[in-house]
Amino acid sequence: MVTQVPQVGAGAESGGGSQRTEGGQMRCCWLVVAMQLLLVSEVLAQEKAEEAPVLDGREGRQLLLENFRPQSMLKVPATKLAGAKYPAIDIHSHFRIRLRHSAEQLEAFVQVMDRQRIAVCVSLDGQLGENIDEHVKYLLTKYPDRFAMFANLDWQGTGKVDQPATWDCNRPDFARRMAGQLADAKTRGCCGLKIFKSFGLEYKNADGSLVKIDDPRFDPIWQACGELGFPVIIHVADPAAFFLPIDEKNERWEELHRRPEWSFYGPQFPPREELLAAFHRVVGRHPQTKFIGAHLDGDAENLQAVARALDEHPNLYVELASRIAELGRQPYSARKFLVKYQDRVLLGTDGPWPEERLKLYWRFLETEDEYFPYSEKEFPPQGLWQIYGVYLPDEVLRKIYFENALKLLPSVQARYARAAAAFK
């Protein structure tokens, strides 16, 4: 191969240019050689990758966890349910976050609600002020009896992300103003308040430290919710595995490997137990306010602890959203818990989800089926296990599906009655 090398240093530099030209030629030759070596190395790397065995577990090859698709050999009865046994109220859904105000997606999901006998969904994305009006228009214009909504607080306001001292929550009048905003939210159609898990894990004080869930600065907000009849649903912490090292002992390793931002392990985060204890202190300080511990009070792996919290705080309720994976792998304990606390448990799904996911909720609650998926996804998204049904009695199902929610949300009673009547 002959390489044409440009004559660097010729022309205006010709008076002594011979020496400069030879140096330029040498530099260019080395550059060409380096480029050729790089090309060869890339080709060799590509050939090596093509020759490397696919780690699919076949013919004695190793298996990557992400390629693991076990097919159960169990032959056990499988119950097919068309929808929930009783017209349901889903207390935990996200129609702004998941559907982004798409009219087409909303219409499609209402059809899913009809087929699955979900009478009313509570959207936890109402926000505040005019944003509530926007959400009301989206949900209720065409379907006035099928939705309700909770408000949300704006902790940052117009403050700068990297300057927590400028955040609205660090102004001395924040709680008083938010209490007023919640009263306004009620007139706009909201019937509760949703607090996201960033409260305790991300929101910061003026000095950069994390806001504590039981900070007394925010007591006027919880008090106002009690006066307004607003239940407060709070997502506290996350699964226990999310607060542990992402190592070979972590039962949610695969999930955290895909989503490392979900990990709360490290000194920059408070211990999970501290977050839960702080939330329960708030519940105890405000006995006139109804609180809902989202996702089984954030502690579905430890039903004994959830039971203690419910025993200690009669104003505390829990809901099931995105936790049938945890409950369904401990079916004996889960059934005992759900029967004992049947007056304090609400249905939640964390949707809108595909229809197959909703069917698995009914199957978990209503049947005694064994070893079935908790998700419609081929690869389990939350843990590498399957679940068992807890076959709850009808009176318990009625309470979880709708009766408990109607007690907490009296403003929903009329629309629920109209929507449920259409299923008969």
Overview of this protein structure:
Pfam families: Amidohydro_2. Keywords: Hydrolase, Lyase. GO terms for molecular function: carboxy-lyase activity; hydrolase activity. This is Amidohydrolase. With 424 residues, the chain is α/β, with parallel strands linked by helices. 42% of the residues lie in helices and 7% in strands. It has helices at 17-51, 95-99, 103-116, 130-140, 174-188, 198-201, 219-228, 253-258, 272-285, 294-297, 303-312, 324-327, 331-340, 355-366, 394-408, 413-421, and strands at 88-93, 118-123, 147-149, 193-195, 232-234, 291-293, 316-319, 345-346. It has a five-stranded parallel beta sheet. The chain has a three-stranded parallel beta sheet with strand order 1-2-3. Helix 4 links the parallel strand 2 and strand 3. Helix 5 packs parallel to helix 7. The longest helix has 35 residues, at 17-51. The protein is globular and about 75 Å long. The model is unreliable at 1-22 (pLDDT under 50).
In CATH, the topology of the largest domain is named TIM Barrel
Number of domains: 2
Task: Please estimate the helix content.
Answer: 40-55%
State the fourth-level CATH superfamily of the largest domain.
Metal-dependent hydrolases
For the termini, the CA-CA separation is 83 Å
Shape: globular
Overall structural class, as computed from helix and strand content, comes to: alpha/beta
What is the number of helical segments per DSSP (H or I, 4+ residues)? 16
- Mean pLDDT figure: 91
Total beta strand runs: 8
What's the architecture of the largest domain, going by CATH? Alpha-Beta Barrel
Q: What Rg do the Cα atoms give?
A: 29 Å
CATH class categorisation of the largest domain: Alpha Beta
Order of helices and strands: HEHHEHEHEHHEHHEHHEHHEHHH
Biggest sheet details: 5 strands, parallel
